[in-house]
Amino acid sequence: MAATLRVCSLYPELMNIYADRGNIAVLRARCEWRGLGFELAGASVGAAVEPDAHDLFYMGGGQDRDQALVARDMVETKRAALHAAAGRGAVVLAVCGGYQLLGSEYQMGDEKLPGVGLVDLRTVREPGPRLIGNCAIEADLGGGPRVIAGFENHGGRTYLGSSEKPLGKVLRGHGNNGNDGYEGVHRGNVIGTYLHGPLLPKNVWLADRLIELALGVELSPLADDSMEDAAHASARRAAGV
User: Fold this and answer.
1) Residues 123-150 pLDDT 10s
2) Out of 154, 186, 196, 232, which one is annotated catalytic?
3) Backbone angles phi, psi at 163, to 5 degrees
4) Residue 212 main-chain phi, psi, to 5 deg
5) What 3-state class would DSSP assign to 213?
6) Among residues 8, 31, 96, 135, which one is catalytic?
7) Is 96 labeled as catalytic in the residue annotation?
8) Cα–Cα distance between 140 and 174 in angstroms, integer?
9) Which residues contact 181 (CB under 8 A, 6 or more apart)?
10) What is the pLDDT of residue 2?
11) Is 135 a catalytic residue?
12) What share of the chain is helix, strand, coil (3-state, %, to 5)?
């Protein structure tokens, strides 16, 4: 019997800026094209989640007002479950605003948004321009370094704790804070990144790798990924790599 990828989308109606819901569509397609099952559940404000009921948890980015609501609700209703899920090896993928909430806090002027503390990082809204533009990083999620390309647009600067590993090294763009040359965070199967556009349609190799990590399988290549390869090449060209 074929395996089934069980995905939980966190706050899908609030955290979906830049059409980040496209990441879910790619995961579904990559599974179905291989004969794998795909199940999607959603958990929004006030809803608890079961840590063992899902193989992959996903959260996209959102506007500041929505992010503030999500931050407090996630700590109150989902923090313990997310820690339990990450502890057993479930994949957690958080993009942009979702990424900023993986750490301890997001300081926005006089307001401090709490994070769920899955990783050691903090984000600060510092003076200066937003970090905007096409971006490419070199990341290694097993099998050697690969390029992840996308688009970043964030006012917050994220700083990793000394024990944390970034998702990748910036080849072009700003990354976490525009200064240290790194982008995202990667601890176990917890991944946070500022790159969207959306992320997975431009980097289907990453979608496949997330499925492998979530299910503990090795995927065979698909017969024709020419359109997906073209999208990745276009994203890389846009970033200048």
Assistant:
1) 999 999 999 999 999 999 998 999 999 9
2) 196
3) -90, -5
4) -60, -45
5) helix
6) 96
7) yes
8) 19
9) 169, 170, 175
10) 78
11) no
12) 30, 30, 40
